[in-house]
Amino acid sequence: MFPLHRDREQPIFSARAHVFQIDPATKRNWLPASKHAVSVSFFYDASRTVYRIISVGGTKAIINSTITPNMTFTKTSQKFGQWADSRANTVYGLGFSTEQQLHQFAEQFKEVKEAARLAREKSQERFELSNPALNIAAPELSQELSEERHSPPLLTVNGPGEEKLFRSKSAEVELTVEKEKVKKMLSEGSMCEINLEAELFTLQDSNAKLVAALQEASSSVEQWKQQLDEYQEETDRLRDQVAELEGQLGHPAAGQSAREELSQSLEELEALLSAKDQEIHSLQSKKTDVGELEKEREETIQRLEDLERLNSDLEDRVQSTEKTLASSREEQNQAEVEVQRIIEVLDVKICDLNDLRQSLAKLIDK
Predict the structure, then answer these.
(1) 133-166, pLDDT tens digit by residue?
(2) What residues does each domain of the chain span?
(3) Does residue 207 have a pLDDT over 50?
(4) What are phi and psi of 163, to 5 degrees?
(5) Is residue 56 a contact partner of residue 201, using CB atoms and an 8 Å limit?
(6) Which range among 158-162, 166-170, 205-209, 268-272 shows the weakest confidence by mean pLDDT?
(7) Which residues contact 16 (CB under 8 A, 6 or more apart)?
(8) Which residue has the higher pLDDT, 263 or 157?
(9) How many CA atoms lie within 13 A of 108 on its CB side?
(10) What is the C-alpha to C-alpha distance for residues 173 and 165, in angstroms, rounded to an integer?
(11) H helices of 69-134, where?
(12) Where is the WH1 domain (predicted)?
């Protein structure tokens, strides 16, 4: 449906401008229809020979104006112009960044307006020639109607057999009324088709944005999965280091080196977690209202929380190991002090024993 729509209606001119609409309450103040400058384009529908001005802001069409021969684009300042759309029952205003852009848009409006006038005249001619209810095909009857326009309201013509024929302008009046009814029906049908095409144009734009958002969300999910794999690898490495540290409790020097290395690894991991957390917050700011993406995001956050808890447990184990190492060192120092004290006591005892030996030797000599 969308490709056929694009093939049928082609853009012929585009410009960027701030879009405004007249306040329906006051009919004086301008109300902004777009927060920033948007693209305003002229489109030509070859199948219906219709020219339109269309502008889309976000997910809705803020301008959908069919150009008619009686429309006029008026420059109200050096960078601002406006035109009235009786079908939409509003007045559109465009604010351009330069005077040249306003001039180009005004010239394009004039060209499209003239083309719309020529297209309408050709369309009416084809319609009158092809519809028997609105046009008398026989040349004699056409000539007769032409004569009636210049003849009195009532004319008597004598023909063979003394028959009288009466002609009046009532047939022409009825024909005009019938034409107006058919034109009104065609105008109403055209408005319905314009509204449907505007909805199709809006849906097409929304679909493109949704596809882009889904692609961006899929890329974000892949990044989250990759980050989780990196966190798991880092956690496994830390677990191995903790096991190695626990096995080295009896070797203070080796334990000190492993502890420093583990502390450095923990600092690097904390820095990595902080950076990834900022990336996750940045990705979360770009999330869309897609159910599956929200579910995967929640699962990812849950896995991240589990990893953070696991890392916290590992840090607790590292702290416990450091305390054990400190306690072992303190006990070793106390043991060394006790051994030194015993040695000193033994030295004193040995000195006393030597003195006693000397005293016994003196007594034996006497």
Answers:
(1) 544 444 443 444 444 444 333 333 334 443 333 3
(2) 11-129, 270-327
(3) yes
(4) -85, 150
(5) yes
(6) 158-162
(7) 37, 38, 39, 40, 96, 97, 101
(8) 263
(9) 20
(10) 19
(11) 99-130
(12) 4-116
Task: Identify whether the C-beta of residue 102 lies closer than 8 Å to the C-beta of residue 96.
Answer: yes
Contact 104, 15 (CB under 8 A): yes
Pair of tokens at residue 274: 């902080």
What amino acid occupies position 292?
A: E
Instruction: Give the residue among 281, 287, 283 at the shortest CA–CA distance from 214.
Output: 287
| Residue 28 DSSP one-character state | S
Return the closest-CA partner of residue 37 out of 13, 57, 54: 57
Look up residue 254 and give its two tokens: 């080796």
Closest to 178 (Cα-Cα) out of 139, 149, 148, 136: 136
CA 148, 141, 173 angle in degrees (round to 5)?
50
Mind listing the pLDDT tens digit for each residue in 322-338?
Answer: 888 888 888 888 888 88
Is the CB of residue 242 less than 8 Å from the CB of residue 258?
Answer: no
Q: Does domain 11-129 have CATH number 2.30.29.30?
A: yes
